[in-house]
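User: I'm preparing a small set of examples for a lab meeting where we compare how different chains pack in three dimensions. I only have the primary sequence for this one, and I'd like the structure in token form so I can line it up with the others. Please keep the answer compact; I'll paste it straight into my notes.
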Amino acid sequence: MNDDQDQVPAEQRLFDAVAQWNAETGYGTTDLIDAACLALSEGLDSPSLRDLGGASPKDSMFDLKEMVDNTLDELKIAQPGTLRQGHVIARGGGTTRRLGTDMIQFEVAEAPDESGGGFQLLVYVNGAEMTAAGAGLGMDPYDVLVPNNLLVATAEAHKIPIARCECGVYGCGSTDVTIVRDGDLVHWDWLLEAPMNRGATFPAADYDNEVDRLGSSHGWETPDRTAGRLILRDVDRQALLAYRLVPSWVANDRRNAAVFRVALQIGDDYQVFIDFPWEDRTPLELARYVCHTLSHAPRTWAATWHAIQPSISEAPKIAGRKWKPAHF
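Assistant: Understood. Below is the structure token output for the 328-residue chain.
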């Protein structure tokens, strides 16, 4: 994955060691001093770098911090946290854009039954799969592609989830990525459980083509997934929000595949479920039926409700006569 350390400038390796060092707890102090010694052996030199290379992990963190700051200043190496996304430390100091030498490919695959089943979005960088190397399992395609394709790169950096724990829950284990367009390049930088020890940079044209291909490729979808995508894409979210309702998930009822269930949420107070029989409808027909139903006032729905907070015993204020408590 282009991780050949011989191609990484000594300045970058020293920067990385400083970035991983915690001056308050002392974590990484030995690695920091070793990195200073390695930098000296590779030809870098400055008065403070020599002091840092001869320091001891037992030295005062205050003194070490002063050595580090002076070393970075003398070698014209940026302080951690100040690098523009997609930039790296250049040989001789200063910064430069990462080269766009990486390749990306996406694939939707079935998620293992032990992870809850369903589907996962796999991410390959230079042929190596990232989600397994990160938190363990790719995100559900709905979480990344619907209603908007979050992989689309813009000039304004944005963060998205890219992997979840093998148990199927994002947050139990998590890998995020920050995506930004930088002219003819697209930069990815990993957060939380990073699958590789550097960010990735792609030629923008190649990246855009792959993201477009993924967004228009629906051959993996089962009928309920197609209906769900269309519903999440087309439902009038603003109309629902007027009642504090937000779409939560959509899927076939796990107990009865002839019924499609839409789950909504009212803040942290209630879950609301509306069931729709397939009745030989196509996914498009079902999606239109669902969206049409949800465009009407909630009091007209035949819905069930569940209080998230144990202290709540009454139905939501928006409930109609056909609303009933949910039973699991």
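A couple of notes for your slides: The two ends are 47 Å apart (CA to CA). Residues 104-216 form one domain.

User: Perfect, thanks.
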